[in-house]
Design goal:
The protein is globular and about 80 Å long. Strand 7 and strand 8 form a beta hairpin. The chain has about 475 residues and is of the alpha/beta class. The protein contains 18 helices and 12 strands. The protein has 3 domains: about 130 residues, Cobalamin-binding domain (Rossmann fold), CATH 3.40.50; about 220 residues, no CATH class; about 60 residues, no CATH class. The protein has a 4-stranded parallel beta sheet, with helices on both faces.
Length: about 475
């Protein structure tokens, strides 16, 4: 019997296509079923088909509300029958019982569909080993910009570490150190056409005992250093562009050595992503980056975890280390881009978490700066020291800065900024503590109340800079959503 299958991704923002749904689509098409994809709840296919099964993917736990709303919405398409709606993915795996209670739909038991019958059908097909359906999004209003040019996949699964901030130990508890990716990539190329780039989602590829074999496989697929991808332009001329390999989840600086970096330098890696999760990794991180540079890898990026067990001081220091390395090797054309990533606990349903060493206002100031630079800390010295300060002390002043000054700073301080800094420098430590306690309250009414209550003239003067536009409603938040 031919079944009608609906694949749903909730309406949150995401850069990459839902690989799990793409593989499920291939699975059902292999069985002869009809498959359709929708994004969010805007498209309404309810009146077009009777759906035999609906799959809803999930991603991060902080997208709880939109995910729950989506599951409940599509549950009505199968008349509330929980056997005909399948929910899986990261959130569903990390918060299985709570999601089941909230929606009445039990999430699928298998985090990875790597056993026969994982989707409840009587066959021996292993969904995780199927190539993804690159045609899934044709005809949908949702298009993913990377899908035309990239092979997406895994060579390893899991991680040897059990970091408390990471969901991988729960999602992929068993480390699988090798899977031959060559047939997978070649089958995608044969069915959907050759792709320019290779994006891999391995969580700790350097932990593999077969790392040299992994690199040889990548080279055999045509992704050696300097590899080019050729294609015909609309006018019929041959165009060549550089290929890249992207270990998108980053590599583990603790596991890098001369042998492994030599192997990495043999492929078209661009960029080399390195995790810099805590200042305690400083020496290992610097050694890793310098090894890469000495082996001819000139474009790097790093993930800077903050709002975890770190402090604002060591967050700045980790960023500064990258600027220092950029400056040291600038003549060699080295570029290291930093991507700060705010930590959110694995069971949080929104982005509001504030770690003990941080506070809401400082987190918000970081986000204001990152919004201006689109989330990326560029490698330039002049930019960094202007955006984040010449020192830890200067950086902490920036964290106190009023939004209307912070977000609209020029290359050199203007009058408002200079005047605010002069007043801020005149505050005692106790007065700065009181200032922070006031601006950490996120409503206009509380701010005005604090100004009325304080007898401190210096605080009254400096608080004028934090006052919002008069058009702001008394009960509105002053500086945006605390869940950002």
């Amino acid at each position: 019997m031919v079944r009608n299958i609906l694949l749903v991704e909730p309406g949150y923002k995401t850069k990459f296509p839902p690989l799990g749904l793409m593989k499920i689509s291939s699975y059902h098409k292999e069985l002869g079923d009809n498959v359709r994809f929708v994004k969010g709840m805007k498209e309404d296919p309810a009146y077009e088909e009777t759906w035999d099964r609906v799959y809803v993917s999930t991603l991060f736990t902080y997208d709880w509300k939109v995910t729950v709303d989506t599951i409940k919405y599509y549950k009505t398409f199968v008349h509330g029958d929980p056997k005909r709606i399948v929910v899986g993915g990261i959130l569903a795996s990390l918060m299985r019982d709570e999601l089941w209670k909230e929606t009445g739909v039990p999430p699928i038991k298998h985090n990875i569909l790597n056993v026969p019958g994982a989707l409840g059908d009587d066959n021996d097909i292993i969904v995780d080993e199927i190539i993804p359906d690159y045609d899934l999004f044709k005809g949908s209003s949702q298009q993913y910009s990377l899908i035309d040019d990239n092979y997406f996949g895994y060579i390893t699964r899991g991680c040897i570490h059990k970091c408390d901030f990471c969901g991988v130990p729960r999602l992929e508890p068993d480390f699988v150190d090798y899977r031959d990716i060559k047939p997978y990539v070649r089958n995608i190329a044969n069915k959907y056409g050759e792709k320019a780039h290779l994006t891999l989602f391995d969580n700790n590829v350097l932990a593999s005992s077969k790392f040299n074999k992994i690199i040889n496989d990548i080279i055999n697929l045509g992704f050696e250093k300097g590899a080019k991808y050729s294609y015909l332009s609309k006018t019929g001329s041959v165009i060549k562009k550089a290929r890249y390999v992207d270990f998108n989840q980053g590599i583990d600086a603790r596991l890098l050595n001369k042998e492994k970096i030599k192997l990495l330098s043999m492929i078209a890696i661009d960029p080399l992503r390195v995790a810099f999760d805590h200042i305690s990794l400083k020496n290992q991180y610097k050694k890793c980056v310098e090894l890469a540079i000495h082996h001819g890898i000139h474009k790097l990026s790093n993930y800077i975890l903050y709002n975890h067990k770190d402090t604002p001081e060591d967050f700045w220091e980790r960023l500064r280390i990258n600027i220092e390395i950029n400056s040291k090797y600038s003549k060699e054309g080295i570029k290291i881009y930093s991507f700060p990533m705010k930590y959110i606990p694995l069971n949080n349903k929104n982005r509001s978490y504030i770690a003990p060493n941080w506070n809401w206002y400082f987190i918000r100031s970081i986000q204001r700066i990152l919004n201006v630079v689109k989330g990326v800390v560029m490698p330039g010295e002049d930019f960094f020291y202007r955006a984040f300060g010449q020192s830890v002390e200067a950086f902490k002043k920036i964290l106190y800065m009023p939004e209307k000054i912070l977000m609209f700073r020029d290359r050199v301080p203007q009058a408002d900024e200079s005047n605010w800094l002069k007043q801020f420098d005149a505050l005692t430590d106790n007065e700065r503590t009181e200032l922070l306690s006031i601006i950490n309250n996120n409503t206009r009414a509380k701010l005005f109340d604090a100004i009325r209550r304080t007898n401190n003239y210096k605080l009254k003067r400096i608080l004028d800079y934090y006052l919002p536009d008069q058009s702001t409603d008394n009960h509105e938040t002053l500086w945006g959503n605390t869940n950002d």
